[in-house]
Amino acid sequence: MIKNNLLLTALFTAACGSAFAQTESFDLNSQRGEKQDVNMVPGKQLDHHGIVVNPTPHNLNMDMQTWTDLSAGVKLIDKAGKFTNDIDFLKQNAKGTPLTIVFGEKQAKKAGLKKMVSGAYLLTVDKKGINIVGYDERGAFYALQTLRQIVESPAAQGKVPALTCNDYPDLPLRGVVEGFYGEPWSHQVRLSLIDYYGRNKLNEYVYGPKDDPYHSCPNWRLPYPPEQAKNIHELVEACRRNRVDFVWAIHPGQDIKWNEEDYNNLVNKFNLMYDLGVRSFAIHFDDIDGEGTNPSKQVALVNRLTKEFVKAKGDVAPLVVCPTDYSQLWAKPGPDGPLAIYGNELDPEVQVFWTGAVVCSDLTKETLDFVDSRIKRPAYYWWNFPVTDYARHIIMQGPTYGLETDITDKMTSGVLSNPMEHGEASKLALYGVADYNWNVADYNAIDNWECGLVDLTPEAHEAYRTFAIHSCDTETGYRRAESWETNTFRLADFSQKAYNDLYGEFDRVEKTKSTMERDCKNQLLMKELKPWLEQFELLGKRGKSTLKLMKTFRNGNAQNFWNAFVANRMTKEARAAYEKHKLGTMKLQPFYENAMDDMAQEFFKNLTGEVPAFYKGMGTYPTLATTQSKLMFDNDSTTYYHCGQSQSTGDWVGADLGTVRDVREVKILQGRNSVDDVDYFDNVVLEASADGKSWTQLTGELLKTYIIHWKGEPVKARYVRIRKAESEKKSWIAVREFMVNPTTPESLNFKVESANLDAAMFGFDKNPVTSFRNSGKTSFTVVPGTKAYTMLLNVEQNGAVKFNQYDKKGKLLASTDINNSFFNVNLNNKAAKAEIEGNVEVFEVIAK
Predict the structure, then answer these.
(1) pLDDT digits over 745-756, tens only?
(2) HEC assignment per residue over 366-395
(3) Are 41 and 399 in contact (CB under 8 A)?
(4) Do domains 5-32+171-456 and 746-847 have the same CATH topology?
(5) How many helices (H) and strands (E) does the chain have?
(6) What top-level class would CATH report for the domain 616-742?
(7) 3-state class (DSSP) for residue 805
């Protein structure tokens, strides 16, 4: 399931060619509605006494005083001959400790298994040896995975304690869907993941990468090329070894024709996959529009395939289908809705996917009640976590949570995780998905995460933990807690203790990359994390230097501070690199952004006695209070603030001007573009207020207006906003620019001349963080009474920069070398014009 309309457009354009004409009206972005609440991770870390089993067993009793030494090996007694290749973690020895494995319903009943369900097992270790009884082959295999984890635990060291483990899964379907948009997993990563599924008792892998053209359009009707077919067969065999069902999914809905020819095309493709060893199939009708969305025809197709393919073959599992209405946000709820049609007409053996309240959402009884009552079966929960195809600059490494722990198999048949395109880095989340599915009531999210870090990187788990705890949140999508152990602070709240604590954390952040490069043996993981680890190291350095800069600011030396401030800014290239691979977005990077802004504003106030023209975002969307809103004020129309939340009538986005000002002009650019973007208020009013309570309308209702430009008699206001008037639109809101009283040549009381006059205005806008690049000469007339100038610059080494003074006739009175970024100069009493000459970045020219 995709979460971004621009990405969807690009993908359909690339993958479907001329078929895109059918999809251009499809707007999934308008159907999004993730809440922006950030809930804390539930649970607490436990002491496992050196033995961790994942997923958490229902009944595990160990006698830590009685141990069996397995260093001499085990004697395998495998009556079914199924498990010889599954005990590679133990040495085999005909004279070793007996390891007996049996399975079957009859044996399970005799042994007293707690539940007679697929995957259940009884594992016992006593003086006589090790005994395993599985309800089925899969259950016996799972018992071996439990034994493996105990034997390989730090406390075991080649021994195993006396124990009884009578265990079973709560949910029958426990899996992973490769169903994201973006680069599909490599064959190597897929194989690595399948082994991981088996070790953690996951039993389904749904193969459905959106960017596999032979899974979706345009080539779903065609056979896989030989090399790809060979790889799929290898995946099927790897799944069999790990007792995982390989489910091959097809996504035909965008261009399917409801006729006999395409039915035969579908059956033929299923037969081709059957010949590769596939015995489980899914049909996805998600993220489409047009004729393919017809629920009655979808149901008729699935029912016919069930009768003529699944049951005719005899060894094929019941089908799984993803409906077009896969989310409660836009699902038609009535008795004639698509889900009700599924419930009334779809073969009862067919499983139905469901993503919950919205595309990315928590698993709750409420949403399951909604869907189950309509489809008349427990839904198969497609959980869009830790997927990041809507936030590809993020790599999700936080805990797996958002799953209610009183869910039963009567409510859902299981939870299927849709991971990131970074398969190896997704294992940390899947460790939790496996645990939850197996033992719902005992799921402990924070403890699972702590154990998962050690499981994935035992040699470097402390460094990995530092990385992971600061790489959790999506910023605007499915929000996650991040950096919850770190306390940041603003300039006004500076204390030595707060400084020391935060400096220590930034120091750990800076060292993480080198530590993991040295110690982590998981090279597939390191390959995926590499660009983020590089940015993490820079983030640590940036945080430490910012803390030091705070001390410099507090020491009060203006020149030292400004020089260090300029050096601590992120370059355009550094910022672009960070935006591509972001982390620390909830606390660490905002600390840097806020600290730099706080210092710049206070510095300007101290120099001038004025409140700088530095504006802050505000409004009904929670993310406006974060540094994300700065993108509205960066004077760059290619960047934008994006709310991440469905809009409603009365919502608003505004600017706090810092103090009451005479507002004379407002220019706002809505949307990610001004042509056809869906994310804007399509009925909007511009308003201003001095107190934030009483608002004055500056315009009437503006319909379908991307560009709002108002000029008029000055209005006393501290706050300016755009408010959504009555409208049915539910998409997000994006704002590229929010300009109030933009500095223009006409707004100044002196004349400026420059090769790029518009850019030069940033040197006179009373905002110390905006700047322009002077590459020749910029001159400005001297306002009578001006005695001196203070200039905030960025003077680079070896730059020949001068400050020139001229009289009324243009005669040069003085020329002074500018060799410091903080430059003070007294004026000649005859000076009528001043000039900056040379290649230099100019932040602010302050007349004294």
Answers:
(1) 999 999 999 999
(2) HHHHHHHHHHCCCEEEEECCCCCCCCCCCC
(3) yes
(4) no
(5) 19, 31
(6) mainly beta
(7) strand
